[in-house]
Amino acid sequence: MGATIKDVAKAAGTSVSTVSKVLNGHYSISEETAQRVRKVMKELNYYPSASAQSIAKGTTKIVTVLTSLSPNTAFQNPHMFEIVAGMEETLRAKGYRLHLRGVDAADACEVAEEIISRRSADALAIHVSVMSHPLSGLLTKLRFPHIVLGMPNFESQVCWIDNNNVYSGTIAASYLLGKGYRKIAFIGGQYYDLGSSLRLQGVKQELQSAGFPLEDRYIWLGDSTRADGMGMTAKLLDHAPLPDAIICANNYIALGCVDALHSRGLQIPEDMAVLTFDDYPFSRMIDPPLTVVDINVRDMGSQAGKFLVDMVRNPNMQVQTYVTTSNILERRSTVPKKK
Prior knowledge:
The protein has 339 residues and is of the alpha/beta class. Helices cover 45% and strands 16% of the residues. Helix 1 (5-12) crosses helix 3 and helix 11 crosses helix 12 (251-263). The protein is elongated and about 80 Å long. The model has no long low-confidence stretch (mean pLDDT 91).
């Protein structure tokens, strides 16, 4: 049998009432006492019943988002802010406030544990970039309302929501085939880059089904950077026969890909077409502007907000799902100018 609130009070040398006030963040308890009580709670592996506390305290009407807020995050992970915006809009309409908390993967579990133990939020939204095995174990054990923004790259029982990257890959390949391209290459992130790997899987599936399987020599994987995008494209161009179209897993790789094509004097799309995923941050600024498979991540955030409200009402609710609103935004990089 697990520790009780009475066990915590006894070990901390306080009353049950004091422990309860610490759990609820009551102003009358000194920080010294609160720290002592929380230390004992951790030592005894005591976690208060979320449902019992909700009855006693009422809900906070707060959802806390845990994500990395390190420098340049807006450029390295631009989707995160659109997801949060969609979530905030939905939660606000349902009477909830959204709190943003910067963490990294190393301390996200400790921060989540603190929020849950103090019951300072009704639910957590965790960006997949700060997910870890310890955090997954904590959320599964406590059944605290939560949703991970993106599918974790390891097996778990946590609730998550993501875009269907496999489907997006099929959309990319199908579009290029429809434009008459047949020798299609893929430049993407390393094998552990889940989004890139799933997009590649979709591209392979669609090309195989159409009778134009993706050849190994047309697949190049590296880091999702401009430099690697340029380097991988240069290696691709060193071997004949050349492809007539390149699918880039993201905007950073696409930026380097276009650099490499321009450095070889190749015209886009007359000599080689280029397509990438996502409409931000570089696709519109590159010359020529790039055709993209666009993903409505704001809608993903909105769906996540709806799920979280449902989970607050039913903490046993389990969600592991994809939402898909991918569509092609056609631009000059795949459509030659009319003569």
